[in-house]
Design goal:
It is an enzyme of class 6 (ligase). The chain is an alpha+beta fold and 322 residues long. Helices cover 33% and strands 20% of the residues.
Amino acid sequence: MFKPSVSTHSPEKYGKVAVLLGGDSAEREVSLNSGNAVLNALLRQGVNAFAFDPAERPLNDLLSLDVDRALIMLHGRGGEDGAMQGALQFLKIPYTGSRVLGSALAMDKIHTKQVWQSLGLPTAKYEIADKRHFEAGKCSAIMDKLGNEVMVKPAREGSSIGMARVTSAKQLETAIQDAFKYDNQVLLEQYIDGPEFTVSVIQGQALPSIRMSTPHTFYDYAAKYQDNTTEYYCPSGLSEEQEAQLAKLASRAFDAISGSGWGRIDVMQDNQRQFYLLEANTVPGMTEKSLVPKAAKVAGLTFDELVLSILSTSFDDVANKA
């Protein structure tokens, strides 16, 4: 396995860096953990960096602080959905990761799936529940259409917040109503019975895939962040041919939604070894339990090298971050 060839710069070239963390989304706690881990890595490497929480001070303070660039570690709404990217672009502050369009598309699971589907990329069968005209009486028909085992996902939340796996029409109705607490649109997706994989992308290169195994009914918030029962396999156990196939699929999926800089694509594999795209993440977690650092380590990148390579994506032409 070859170490990825990533671009980084000397500490002084980055200038004064604001690590944007916290925010006011449902993923605030994870964002604080990710942001502080990234900030400490930058400081270890001699970068002039500091923490900036947009939930606690106005964003235009970045101008009076003479910030040269921003490293976005905000997860969820307000930080990962294009809003922060657009604001930074308006302020003419270079920033890391995907642009406005890529961020907005990736945050919306329904629109992401529709883009992938239009390009012939493999995704599971799905339906959409809209709070404005949801009819509980249709739950039985939805279960029949999607194979009687369904994943329920708020369209614009991350970290598995508001998600549920259901096996009956009654459970589906309850799960949809619960998901409506987080979003007016809910994705109802055929459950794929098989292993789950994730592929991280950094500066246009796919890192080794990771396979996740959890005793939970699915890879939920607790499995990701709160307990130690989840197992991670990297290398994931795929054959060399399948690994190459998955890397190509993840790269195509990321490019399809205008993802750039760095991110992560989540995938399921059924018992016929067919891959199905789940979702894209344009600001993945960077905590000690997070997946991108695990894949980077196997690829030969230290955490500090990974963080510098992420920060280096802020040198992309800001004028073109549309």
